[in-house]
Amino acid sequence: MQTLRKSANGPIEAVAQDAGSVAWLVASNSQTCNAVHVIGRNQRELTAPQPPAGTMTCRWTLTDGQPQLAYAAKKSTALWTLHEGGPAPFDWVLSAKAGGPERRVERLAHASNGPGLWLGGIAAAGSTLAYSWVDAEYVDPVGCLSGGSCKQKIADGGIKIVTKTGDQPLPGAQPALQLAASAGRIAYIPALTVKANHPSANTNSSIYVVDASSGDTEAKVFVHGIPSAIALSPHVLAVLTTQAGPHGRISWFSATDGTKLGSTLVSRQAAPVLAASDQLIVYRANRALYRVSTANGRIRLLAKVPVNIVGLSLANGRLAWAENKADGTARLRALSLR
């Protein structure tokens, strides 16, 4: 295990990797701006957006909701989100090339009790950058206003591919929650219902893997339980599901045709985040990181970690995450899994 970088300026809020590059979002203190830092294959460190002063990202309160971060190495471009809470919550999706200016991609707003546009997830890999969105609306708006049922439904949504100048819909994509990207494909968890005023997945539902350019479905897999996290590698789709009883389950499938390759029970305390390569899947439960072999399903302890780690990203045989300390400092950690 090694420390890739230390941050004395503030906590690390998100971590992402692609190919040989690693990116992380650092929160500001009174002297510095929030910024995305990137180390490329040449070990040169760049920051985005540039120049930092005057950008939306610079002084945003990152503690008001967990920001997301993704990085596309072939485009040297980061994609991240900023959340605003309160009575009218909203999310910004932003992007910037490493060392380049900030670009506002989209703003998604909804009411605090549910109706409106929700940010699903973001993902990036290679030359692909994407985000998903969901439109939740009342089934009977007039009846709700007059004291009747205020039940909500998924009315619209989809996935958008981020381009140099804006974004464009991915054909055929459904309203989507968490995304994952790899090798020109995007995997997503469909948003099928509204629970507790939030777009949600359903019990016993399908996960899709689609071509990131055409939107054509390449794999469709059915999982038992409620899907809470996915990860995608060039040949493997990994899915974490919660289910009744003392365990969760990680299942893995062919990313090219959906064939089920294996599954294993894991702790019900497994956090809703996965990282995957073709050979292994990594998850966290309490203060430990574990690896699951995609060849035989065997689970092994990788490392003990603090309870408040941020991010979990696996690329090119390197697992990366962040550890924040009570004094406001942080360190970017990595573990070689070759």
Describe what you observe in this structure.
With 338 residues, the chain is an all-beta fold. It is 1% helix and 59% strand. It has one helix spanning 141-145, and strands spanning 2-7, 12-18, 21-26, 35-39, 45-48, 69-72, 77-84, 90-97, 103-109, 116-125, 128-138, 152-162, 167-169, 176-182, 185-190, 193-195, 198-200, 205-211, 217-223, 226-232, 236-242, 247-254, 260-267, 270-276, 280-285, 288-293, 299-304, 309-315, 318-324, 330-336. A four-stranded antiparallel β-sheet has the order 1-30-29-28, with no helix packed on it. A four-stranded antiparallel β-sheet has the order 2-3-4-5, with no helix packed on it. It has a four-stranded antiparallel β-sheet with strand order 6-7-8-9, with no helix packed on it. The protein is globular.
Please give the largest β-sheet.
4 strands, antiparallel
The first-to-last residue Cα distance is 12 Å
> Radius of gyration, Cα only, in angstroms?
19 Å
CATH-derived architecture = 7 Propeller
- Overall geometry comes to globular
What's the CATH class label? Answer: Mainly Beta
Strand order of the largest sheet: 1-30-29-28
Q: What is the residue-mean pLDDT, rounded to a whole number?
A: 94
Structural class: mainly beta
Give the number of DSSP strands: 30
Low-confidence stretches: none
